[in-house]
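Q: For a teaching session next week I want to show students how multiple molecules come together into a single three-dimensional assembly. I've collected the sequence lines for a complex. Could you give me the predicted C-alpha cells for the whole thing so I can convert them for display?
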Amino acid sequence: MKLKYFAWVRERIGLAEEDIALPDDVATAGDLIVWLKGRGEGYAYALERDAFIRVAIDQEHALHTAPVRGAREVALFPPMTGG
Amino acid sequence: MISVRISGDPLDLAAEAAALGSDDDTGAVATFLGLCRGEAGRLTGLELEHYPGMAEAEITRIAQAAMERWPVQAIHAVHRHGLVGVGEPIVFVAARSAHRDAAFDAVRFVMDFLKTEAPFWKREHLLDGTTGPWVEAKDADDRARERWAAA
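A: Of course. Below is the structure for the complete assembly, covering every listed component.
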C-alpha cells in the first residue's frame, strides 16, 4: 500500500510517500494512524493530535473509521487551506 | 459541463473565462476570483502544496454537487499551485445558467466547499525572504460550508 503525506505531516515525517506492508491488526484509517505513531519520533510528532489528521483513501476523503484494507493509496494530511 | 484545472503557472483570466463557454440559453455568468493577500505588507506570497489527482477529482465532485443542486449549464474552476505572489490570482470559479440566481449560488457553493475539502495547503513566504508557518484552517470556513447543509 502506498502512503502519501502532505504539508506539515509530510515535513514532520520526513517523507512525501512510502510503500508499506499493512500489519494484520490494522483494519481502519484510525488503526493505521496509531500504528504509524509507533514507527518513530517523526511519525509520533506528525500524528500526535490524531483526531485532527485528515485521511483520504484512494483519493477520496474518508473517516478514521473507514477500512483501509484493499486500498491502493492512503493519504494523511492537516485540515486543508486552499482557495 | 464541468472543467477543472490545477495550474502551476499564473492564470490568464480572459482564457479561463472563455473556457466556461456559452450557448443560446445562457443568460447569466457568475465568476469568483481569489487573490493572494499581502497581510499588511508581511508577505511576498503564498506557496500552495496540493495532492495531484485528488485536487482535480475533489473540485470536480464539488462542481457535480452544485450542478445537481441548481440548474447550471457549466462550471469551470482553476486553482494555482506553487508560489503565488501577492496580488496574483489563486483561484477562479465561473458558472453559467439561464438566470442569475443559479450561477451566483453555484459559484459560492463551489468556493465554500473548495476551501475546506479540496486538498491544498498554504504556507506563507515572508518579506525577509524566509518561509513562514503553514496557514491554519479557519472555523469561519467550516461555518461557510455548513451554511449549505441548512439551506
